[in-house]
Amino acid sequence: MSSGKLIRWGIASAGKISEDFVIALSTLPASDHQVVAVAARAQERAAEFAKKHGIPTALGSYEELAKSKDVDVVYIGVLNPQHYEVSLLMLNHGKHVLCEKPLAMNKKQVEGILAAAKANKRFFMEAVWSRFFPSYQHVRQLIDTGALGEIKDVQVNFGFPLANVDRLQKRELGGGVVYDLGIYTIQVSQWAFQEPPQKIESTGHTNAEGIDDDVSTTLTYSGGRTARMRISSREKLDNKAIIKGTKGQVTLIDFWTPNKLIDIDGKEKEWLPPKGKHATNYANSEAMRYEAEAVRQSILAGELENKTVSYADSLLFAQIEDTIRKQIGVLNKYDEQ
Ligand SMILES: NC(=O)C1=CN([C@@H]2O[C@H](COP(=O)(O)OP(=O)(O)OC[C@H]3O[C@@H](n4cnc5c(N)ncnc54)[C@H](OP(=O)(O)O)[C@@H]3O)[C@@H](O)[C@H]2O)C=CC1
Ligand SMILES: O=C1OC[C@@H](O)[C@@H](O)[C@@H]1O
Question: How far is the centre of ligand 1, averaged over its atoms, from the C-alpha of 149 (Å)?
Fold first, then answer.
């Protein structure tokens, strides 16, 4: 660590979400967060990215980033099938890690990553950024104080027309709507119920390559309480999460990136993150600043995990994803290893 409160980020991959994460960091105090290096599979791509964002070091491999003495924590924005190996690479070189969702291709890989984090005594978190929004913290409070009563039902839909996005549609790129969007609907249900589901029932459709592109799932919790979710890369859905309790309900608008909610009193409540210097590739990515700051706080406190997205959370997300994929018949080579 270079100073009392500064954390120095390294960025693994020069892709879209990596760029958005750097833009989000630029909205935080430079005395707290600095991006010191970016690495890509090709040096030129890293150099171009570094030039645009004023990053001092551009590296032509993730290995060089892992070995860098200047980096405290690595943000991993590679494609899904590479999350496992790049996480291990960084942890085994003593780096703290924030890795994009979905954490890995199955629960077994998640277990391997978390074992490496523990063995190396390094902070590790799956980048489930939604949970760090002020709106999610507000919902947490409504649930924990009993203001919503007993949570009975979650209804959540998440869909966009993403048929042309290769990383969602192609098996070798880790495609599948369960991996890409399902993680969000699962995590919001778990945010509400705070216990593992007792039953999981899914039906789904696949693309021509046999990759899931439209899936409906019901998670049943104790006492017959349910979360009903639909995810789709075929069409736009309402993208809301409605959490209903015995005393009231709350609706997260654009629930994966919710600046806004409809509160228990029926009124809208809004929190807006500041804009960065550049436009982002994905909607509202500046709000990744909330998770970035949470990572800093955890690292400064010497924590290996953050309670908002804990190791146990990531294991359960992966287990639910695995079950849904199995139920709709979308398994892959990682499931056989
Ligand atoms: N939190 C959020 O809101 C979002 C999260 N994501 C997650 O981020 C990750 C990356 O998504 P996104 O940035 O959109 O992806 P990109 O298509 O921008 O690719 C990201 C990086 O992956 C590497 N890559 C690209 N193609 C290949 C390939 N064929 N084989 C191996 N590596 C390849 C490249 O790394 P290099 O630069 O080193 O060449 C590329 O820059 C995914 O896991 C996704 O789930 C994505 C969007 C939003
Ligand atoms: O995490 C994500 O957020 C919303 C969608 O754009 C999706 O494809 C992406 O991976």
Answer: 40
Say whether the ipTM exceeds 0.95: yes
| pTM of the model as a whole | 0.98
Ligand 2 proximity of 256 Cβ (cutoff 6 Å): yes
Q: How far apart are CA 258 and CA 255, in angstroms?
A: 5
Query: So where are the chain's domains?
Result: 7-129, 134-270+307-328
CATH number corresponding to 7-129? 3.40.50.720
Q: How confident is the model at residue 3 (pLDDT cuts 50, 70, 90)?
A: very low
User: Is the beta carbon of 40 within 6 A of some atom in ligand 1?
Assistant: yes
134-270+307-328 CATH pick, 3.40.718.10, 3.30.360.10, 3.30.300.30, 3.40.190.10:
3.30.360.10
Segment 228-261, tens digit of pLDDT: 999 999 999 999 999 999 999 999 999 999 999 9
- pLDDT single digits (tens) 110-122: 999 999 999 999 9
7-129 and 134-270+307-328: identical CATH topology: no
